[in-house]
């Protein structure tokens, strides 16, 4: 791991295994910084243990935030982060850009996936921290193995909006947006965040396919509740989903 340079409250590295892993190491050593960014990752991680392809020129960054709240409240910060990421993209690409939020933690532009968020809670001594990892396809996107029409395909901001900022420039904008959304969360609680998230929710009131560890559900995605669960209505009744993959029902 080679350190490239420093900025205020941000450590920027040439390469690292994972920015979330590096942030956790710094917390464990008592040397936490607000942001970790890497120009390359060798072991980037996504949700549910999946790998995150880390191509040079894209953003790989982790925000570290000490919290004094119950873990159930900390888990709602993924919605705070996705809203901040949306704010950042809209500010850079323009208000006419279609930016939607896919439950639980993806950001879509023009219906294609450009970003994902990985939120982890860790404890060190008597303190608790939330690590929020951001992976954003700024200039390129990986070829996904799953080409199902149910799932949004991956693309980049450059391909979709002709806006391809460098990682450091994008991070500066993202840091500003996240501070604003964290303030909203502190003042309004999850109510205001939930309202704003639902205003941009992908597949809201549409038939969806939910894949969980032991079951599959098809129904209509109605809302998210105060705990951040997806509320899906099917012929079998009302389902509250905490963690799953959500996709469009294949009309064919």
Tags for this entry?
252 residues, alpha+beta, BirA Bifunctional Protein, domain 2, SH3 type barrels, 2 domains, 8-stranded mixed beta sheet, 5-stranded antiparallel beta sheet, 6 helices, 13 strands, 32% strand, disordered N terminus
Going by CATH, what is the homologous superfamily of the largest domain? Bira Bifunctional Protein, Domain 2
| Largest sheet data | 8 strands, mixed
Mean pLDDT, to the nearest integer, reads: 88
> Which descriptor suits the 3D outline?
globular
* Oligomeric state of the chains present here: single chain
According to CATH, what is the class of the largest domain? Alpha Beta
Name the beta content range.
Answer: 25-35%
Distance between the termini: 49 Å
Parts with pLDDT < 50 across at least 5 consecutive residues: 1-6
How many strand segments? 13
Would you give an account of this structure?
With 252 residues, the chain is α+β, with helices and mostly antiparallel strands. The chain folds into two domains: 196 residues, Bira Bifunctional Protein, Domain 2 (BirA Bifunctional Protein, domain 2, 2-Layer Sandwich), CATH 3.30.930; 42 residues, SH3 type barrels. Helices cover 27% and strands 32% of the residues. It is built from six helices and 13 strands. Helix 3 packs across helix 6. The longest helix has 22 residues. The radius of gyration is 18 Å and the shape is globular.
Write the layout of secondary structure elements.
Layout: E1 3-7, E2 10-13, H1 19-28, E3 35-38, E4 59-67, H2 71-74, H3 77-93, E5 99-102, E6 106-109, E7 112-124, E8 127-136, H4 157-161, H5 167-188, H6 190-198, E9 207-211, E10 216-224, E11 230-234, E12 237-241, E13 245-248
Parallel strand pairs: 2-3
Antiparallel strand pairs: 1-2, 3-4, 4-8, 5-6, 6-7, 7-8, 9-10, 9-13, 10-11, 11-12
């Amino acid at each position: 791991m080679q350190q490239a340079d420093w900025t205020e409250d941000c450590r920027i590295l040439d390469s690292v295994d994972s920015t979330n892993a590096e942030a956790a190491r710094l917390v464990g050593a008592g040397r936490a910084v607000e942001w970790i960014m890497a120009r390359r990752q060798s072991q980037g991680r996504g949700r549910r243990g999946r790998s995150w392809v880390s191509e040079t020129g894209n953003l790989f960054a982790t925000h570290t935030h000490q919290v004094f709240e119950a873990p159930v409240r900390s888990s709602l910060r993924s919605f705070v982060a996705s809203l901040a990421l949306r704010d950042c993209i809209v500010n850079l690409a323009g208000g006419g850009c279609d930016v939607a939020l896919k439950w639980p933690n993806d950001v879509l532009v023009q219906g294609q996936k450009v970003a994902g968020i990985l939120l982890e809670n860790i404890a060190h001594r008597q303190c608790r921290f939330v690590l929020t990892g951001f992976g954003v396809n700024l200039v390129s996107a990986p070829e996904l193995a799953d080409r199902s029409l149910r799932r949004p395909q991956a693309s980049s901001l450059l391909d979709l909006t002709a806006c391809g900022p460098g990682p450091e420039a994008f991070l500066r904008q993202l840091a500003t947006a996240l501070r604003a959304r964290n303030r909203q969360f502190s003042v309004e609680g999850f109510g205001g965040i939930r309202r704003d998230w639902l205003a941009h929710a992908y597949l809201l009131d549409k038939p969806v396919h939910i894949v969980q560890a032991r079951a599959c559900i098809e129904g209509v995605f109605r809302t998210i509740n105060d705990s951040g669960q997806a509320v899906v209505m099917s012929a079998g009744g009302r389902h509250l989903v905490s963690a799953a993959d959500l996709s469009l029902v294949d009309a064919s």
